[in-house]
Write the structure tokens for this entry.
Amino acid sequence: MPHALPGIRLTLAVLAVVATTAGCGRSGDETTARMVSERFFAAVESGDGERACAQLSPDTRAELEKQEQRPCRDAVSEVELAGGSVVRAQVYVLNAMVELSSGEAAFLDHGQQGWRLSAIGCTPVAGKPADRPYDCELQS
Amino acid sequence: MRALRNHGLALFFAVIFLASLIGQAFTGQDDFNHLQIAHHQDPVSLGRYLTSSDFWVDVLENWQSEYLQFTLFILTTVWLVQQGSPESKELDKAGTESDQEQKLGDHTTEDSPKWARVGGLRTRIYSNSLVIVMAAIWIASWLGQSVTGRITYNAQQLDHHEAAVSWASYLTTSDFWNRTLQNWQSEFLAVGSMAVLAIYLRQRGSPESKPVGAPHAATGVEG
């Protein structure tokens, strides 16, 4: 039985490393996702369209410009958003979600420019939020 | 040279295990990045992929089913028999057998492992050590699968603008059970196939087979 202990210890060590490094609990990513979101909503509130658009992913910016038929910096203030402060941020691998004090949510993904918003003005539809996509004012 | 020869089986499987794990790392990264690009997201480096839940859930869902297979096989072959199979004990030997047959108590020798000779709790533990360790690795890797699987699942949820789920909720999802059961079915099929096919088929020289000339009805004999 003592001969089996190194094998058991190695297995437990591998599992401990997996649990702590496998894409969950990276607090730096959560902080960044919060900051990007807060920067966006602060920029929208202050009318700084350029800064707000810089927080959106390229695909989300392109979608907004396609919908509104004008530059993002001019169109972003027209998106209907309840806004609010970030009360919770969750990160899983390269995707994130922030929940706002207004009850709305926003989604982010991690690309070449880092964390950027991929969907804003999102509210849960009827039923369990895990079973149906949120209904978003703007998404890529 | 003798060491290589005497430990050839373990060494061979260690080498092909490492080779296939390395191969899985590369093909898994390529597959992951293929999906990333399809979702208009950026590809990741090999290092990033190897520390991701996507890689580890694919590894652990396979490990847990292998160790469950061994746990069940070791346990069930104590009490269940299969006529004609070399994987089975003889038909009248079902159960934990006598101390004499198991070389315990007064029947230990100088060469017997220490924990077999000492008696008491340590001998009881050692008498079940194979199942204990196999089951422990199975449970630990299944737990690891559930943790990494939830992370991967939640990444997909957020990518689809759906809410993330707790670990307890993840255990009730079809994603967790689909990963689990698709592995279990193949393991159980493999063991069952081996137990039955070896009744009628032979492989000369392998201890997994009966001797080529042994009758089909012969049970618990090795080639």
